[in-house]
Structure to design on (143 residues):
């Protein structure tokens, strides 16, 4: 599976961090040397790929190694097989294996176990990833 979300969006006349409002964003927080990515509403596979690319760019630009994925207001609208191949996208965009990825679980949990599957797949592929119920616990683990 290829990670072509950026090219697909350009062809569709959209852009990731400008022009068209997307349900997610990424930023670098210098005080904690952390890249924060947050999503709200339904997040599809292309959104997740865009988050990965945006976060990776910020990690590399700032020589950071911490990522806080805030999914507290998000609903994953993806198939299990998409989650399985998401680390392939991480490889393509250059997410460093040394990065620590803390994911804050949604307030309203999906019964499918998708987030737990994501954590397992990431760990099996060599990424340091953990799930958290609160921002405070996620930040403590990152630091």
């Amino acid at each position: 599976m290829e990670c072509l979300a950026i090219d697909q969006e350009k062809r569709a006349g959209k852009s990731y961090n400008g022009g068209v409002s997307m349900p997610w964003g990424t930023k670098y927080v210098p005080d904690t040397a952390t890249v924060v990515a947050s999503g709200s509403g339904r997040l599809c596979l292309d959104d997740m790929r865009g988050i990965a690319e945006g976060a990776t760019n910020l990690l590399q630009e700032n020589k950071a190694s911490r990522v806080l994925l805030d999914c507290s207001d998000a609903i994953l609208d993806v198939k299990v097989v998409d989650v399985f191949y998401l680390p392939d996208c991480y490889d393509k965009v250059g997410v460093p294996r040394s990065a620590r990825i803390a994911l804050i679980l949604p307030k309203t949990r999906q019964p499918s176990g998708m987030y737990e599957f994501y954590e397992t797949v990431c760990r099996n592929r060599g990424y340091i990833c953990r799930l958290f119920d609160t921002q405070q616990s996620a930040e403590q683990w990152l630091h």
